[in-house]
Amino acid sequence: MNASPATEQEARKSRRRMTVSAVLISGAIFSMLGLSFAAVPLYRMFCSATGYGGTTQVAKIAPATEGQRDIIVRFNANVAKGLPWSFEPETPQIRLRTGKVATVFYKVTNHADRPIAAQALYNVTPENSGGYFDKISCFCFTEQTLGPHESADMPVVFFLDPALEQDESMKNVDQITLSYTFFISKNPAPVTASSDHSEGSDKPL
Q1: What is the pLDDT of residues 11-25, one digit of tens each?
Q2: CATH number of residue 147's parent domain
């Protein structure tokens, strides 16, 4: 028996509603997936811009004038599991006037019989100090490669922004800890005769 025109019309409307619903649901799923993939780089950009999570800042030049406060800056060094390097600061801590540039060195040694590339991740504590901790130069900006049993002194040049003196959340902060952790690179650059330090070539820090 043939369906009535009214019944067929209702069926078509129902199919259209189901199609529209499917499209909307699919669009929502793809949008959420896109946001999840974008979340990591967006979060990193947010941290870099605000110092959130103890992320330090990057500066090209030092402040024109020094501030009024002296703060102790402590240095921490770690090596992730599986990386046969030793890593330590030249000095455990310094007392630094805000606005004054300091240079400290970290000693790192590759104990393996082969070249190894690694990247240093970093943060500062307390976390609210990240927005005022400015690095001019740092070994952590680029991947580092050490030849077999090679050692190197790696510098970090930084200052504490005098603007922290106007931040109420920094009022009682008298110590800041800068922490680094070296992780072995997942996709290290190929080592050639020209880049192998055992052949006597210089490595930029």
Answers
A1: 555 555 565 455 455
A2: 2.60.370.10
182 CB-contact burial (10 Å; exposed 0-12 / middle 13-18 / buried 19+): buried
9 φ/ψ angles, rounded to the nearest 5 degrees: -65, -40
CA dist., res. 205 & res. 157, Å (int): 12
Q: How far from chain centre, in Å, is Cα 137?
A: 14
The most distant pair of C-alpha atoms in the chain lies apart, rounded to whole Å, by 94
What is residue 23's DSSP assignment?
A: H
Residues 62-103 have pLDDT tens digits of 889 999 999 999 999 999 999 999 999 999 999 999 999 999
Q: Which tens digits make up the pLDDT trace of 170-188?
A: 999 999 999 999 999 976 5
Identify whether 94 is part of a domain.
Answer: yes
Residue type, position 138, single letter = C
Sheet with 151-160, strands from edge to edge, namely 57-58, 133-138, 151-160, 102-110, 85-89
Query: Domains in the chain: how many in total?
Result: 2
- pLDDT surpassing 90 at residue 196: no
Q: Whole-angstrom Cα distance, residue 145 to residue 170?
A: 37
**Cα atoms in the Cβ-side hemisphere of radius 13 Å centred on 100:** 13
Domain end, chosen from 50, 75, 90, is at 50
Is 202 a member of any domain?
A: no
Does residue 194 belong to any structural domain of this protein?
no
- The verdict on residue 195 lying in a domain is no
